[in-house]
Amino acid sequence: MAEEEGGSYIDYDAFLDPDFSPTAFANSLVIATNNPSDIPIDLSTPLSRVLFDIQDIDTHIHTLTTKSAIPLLTHTRDQADAGERIVADVEAQLATLTDGYQRLQKEVIQRYEEADEVRIAVERLWETVRIGRSVARCLNMGRQLETQMIEVGGSGGTSGQAKKEDHRAMTRASNTLLSIRRILAASGPDEEGEHLSKINLITYLQNSVLTPAETWLRNRAQQIIREFSMSSLAPSSNAPATYAQSEETKARTTSALLTLQLLNPRLLLAALQAYLRTSLTSSVAAIARALGNLPTLDRTLLEVAARCQNIVALESLLEVLKPPPTGQSEPGDQVADQAGNLLEPLLAALDTSSLPSFFWRSLAEGLAPRVADLVGKGGVSARALRTQKERVKDSIRDCVLRGSQGPANIKGIAGAWEREAAVMVGSVTGSLR
């Protein structure tokens, strides 16, 4: 480097070294121009050396630029011309790109924005149409339900004319009601019943048609079950007198059972348990009174046997009825849907294998303390009861066997009810020992 620059003493390689350190170079200059033993350090000499080196470099630069002025200017001019040509080309391409973007914006972006608006409008229209269809379907089924309620003799008619009750319409009305409830319950995203709860017409339909119809159907079905009677042993206003009336009673009760099963399986279970509970309560009270007045015992036991025959008839009816699908989501309702017949859930709830057996055993359980109380009080009734103990035993046993046969006098297996008869006899005679 020193030879190329006309014998310059400056070591350019040292200055150009990547590891060059200004502080180390300054320190070496100070040490080279001063004695380490000198207390005052002379900085003027190394500073003059640095200034001289700078002046020499400046002179060298001036010399180089003077000799190379024309090539530098020519190079600068060539670079400027090349830059202008590049700018011109870039401006032309930029103009083309700008024109293409404007055409793209006009032909694509604007059309997309317009199409997106149309899409939003179509989606909202489709949502409106879907809600309208759901509302129309609910209203159509609501009109159908009103017609069925008129047929069954319930509310919903506008003419005010009384019509003969068609109990089969109860099941049809329950199915219609259940279908409407399913639509209204399907209120999730993209489901048929979404947003229906916000429609005033649907709210009116629920309040003026669905709720009154459901209440009437439930009450009427519970009333039919509560008044169920098939036995002819004891006179009753509800007992059928002919075969046709008997079949009509069975058909009407079947409609009531299916109606409650459709509305809510737990309502059916509660209605059946209430029927059994009423029969048991009436029977316990009647036998307890009759044991205190033995001349009325035979008639009372006949009435109790008739109640048991009704229970046998109800059991046979429940056994042949298959539960219709309700679509209920509660666990108890799903179990009822999965049962083979309507009898199984009732037997499971009562923890028994037979309704007549449950009736007699529960009757004996409730009768024992009443008899014990009667005997404990003493008096004429207690003495008469002890005196006619054998007659009472035979009457009670005959009552159990007769009541367990069923209203059509179709006897079961011989001796099948001997155990229930023994339990009933024991509940009365147990306190007479």
Keyword list:
433 residues, mainly alpha, elongated, disordered N terminus
List unreliable stretches of 5+ residues: 1-6, 156-162, 409-415
Oligomer: single chain
- What portion of the residues fall into strands of 2 or more residues? under 5%
Helix content: over 70%
Radius of gyration: 53 Å
Detailed description of the structure:
With 433 residues, the chain is an all-alpha fold. The protein has 15 helices and no strands. Helix 5 packs parallel to helix 7. The N terminus is likely disordered.
Structure summary:
The chain is an all-alpha fold and 433 residues long. It contains 15 helices and no strands.
Topology:
Elements: H1 12-16, H2 22-32, H3 44-67, H4 69-152, H5 168-185, H6 200-226, H7 243-263, H8 265-291, H9 297-320, H10 331-338, H11 343-350, H12 355-377, H13 380-387, H14 389-403, H15 418-429
